[in-house]
Amino acid sequence: MSYSRHQLNALAKENPKELTRVLTSLNVDVPTLTYGAEILGDVKEEELVLPVLRQLLKHVNAIVREGAMMGVSAFYLDKKPPQELIERLRAMSKSDPSPANRDMAVSLMEEFNK
Known about the structure:
Mean pLDDT: 96
Distance between the termini: 39 Å
Number of helices: 7
Structural class: mainly alpha
């Protein structure tokens, strides 16, 4: 299943629950997951966003994990994320296979600790 950025943005605004369903369903391509994770930062309801970001931070594909971190960064811009996300970022900062993701996780943790 594939969605454009435009479609994902529209879902985030008009039907965020459907966006989260799309991002947690099987057979979704990597670009959809990546862009969708980033766009989740624009959704207001934490009860919708948190479970999806939690799942995508553990995705096998590095670019999806990067998108999920961007979503975390955007969603929690003005508030501290839950401890479980901080712990996941800490683990990613030490052991993510992608050096760029490790660096990004370190940067996010520094931002959240200000």
